[in-house]
């Protein structure tokens, strides 16, 4: 067994954990002898630039880690480039499909960490105090903008009503606001106006299809940012977009 660097690794980053995912793309590539070209998300471009400046300050040679800012077209060009030996992307399923298609032109290796719709299953013998706390903690972290946080819950029918009551009361206690101005808040805003509109659209569509809003369900019209109320929706079905 021996170490053989691939060459140039292109990393395409999402916006939700920009510093953490910067490190997770860069460190393995450098440890195995590669150079890196990173494209931060256009929704959080400065984080990648700041991280690269820190690497420059500690003396990393020029050209080892490179930042290219831009939109999806830039990511597409990286994936298509014959000078790139591997593409690693963390993002949506759609973005992953686009990268696979582009990388296939040169049979470039790909590493895909794509979005999900993580479920939680609650059986009738579950400790509901622990279960409800775990679900709420998972759901509100980073305003729910995490690929592996709880997004849907399947509850045994024998305890469904009690679970509804408990999860609704727990979610009503979630405090939202600007975490930079108030350390007591549990949940901040969504990332963009389009993100807010997407959540609002899914909630409204679910209600139109028969789901029930148990708490929340509205954007905060008084806020000057992209806040959506902590929300619990019951009686949803797998055919609904929100599921």
Automatic annotation (TrEMBL):
GO terms for molecular function: oxidoreductase activity, acting on the aldehyde or oxo group of donors, NAD or NADP as acceptor. SUPFAM superfamilies: ALDH-like. The keyword Protein biosynthesis does not apply. Gene3D superfamilies: Aldehyde Dehydrogenase, Chain A, domain 1 (3.40.605.10), Aldehyde Dehydrogenase, Chain A, domain 2 (3.40.309.10). This is Aldehyde dehydrogenase family protein. The active site is at residue 113. Keywords: Oxidoreductase. InterPro entries: Ald_DH/histidinol_DH, Ald_DH_C, Ald_DH_CS_CYS, Ald_DH_CS_GLU, Ald_DH_N, Aldehyde_DH_dom. Residues 2-243 form the Aldehyde dehydrogenase domain. The keyword Oxidoreductase applies. Belongs to the aldehyde dehydrogenase family.
């Amino acid at each position: 067994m021996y170490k053989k660097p691939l060459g140039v690794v292109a990393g395409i980053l999402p916006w939700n954990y920009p510093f953490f995912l910067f490190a997770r793309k860069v460190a393995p590539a450098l440890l195995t002898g590669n150079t890196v070209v990173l494209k931060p998300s256009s929704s959080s471009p400065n984080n990648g630039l700041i991280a690269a400046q820190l690497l420059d300050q500690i003396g990393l040679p020029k050209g080892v880690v490179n930042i290219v800012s831009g939109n999806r077209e830039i990511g597409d060009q990286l994936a298509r480039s014959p000078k790139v030996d591997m593409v690693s992307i963390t993002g949506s399923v759609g973005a992953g499909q686009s990268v696979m298609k582009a990388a296939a032109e040169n049979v470039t290796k790909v590493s895909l960490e794509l979005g999900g719709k993580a479920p939680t299953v609650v059986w009738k013998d579950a400790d509901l105090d622990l279960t409800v706390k775990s679900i709420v903690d998972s759901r509100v972290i980073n305003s729910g903008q995490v690929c592996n946080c709880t997004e849907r819950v399947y509850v045994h029918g024998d305890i469904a009503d009690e679970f509804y009551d408990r999860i609704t009361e727990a979610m009503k206690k979630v405090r939202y606001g600007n975490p930079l101005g108030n350390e007591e808040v549990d949940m901040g805003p969504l990332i963009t106006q389009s993100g807010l509109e997407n959540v609002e659209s899914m909630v409204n569509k679910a209600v139109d299809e028969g789901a029930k809003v148990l708490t929340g369900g509205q954007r905060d019209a008084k806020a000057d940012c992209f806040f959506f109320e902590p929300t619990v929706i019951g009686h949803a079905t797998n055919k609904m977009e929100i599921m």
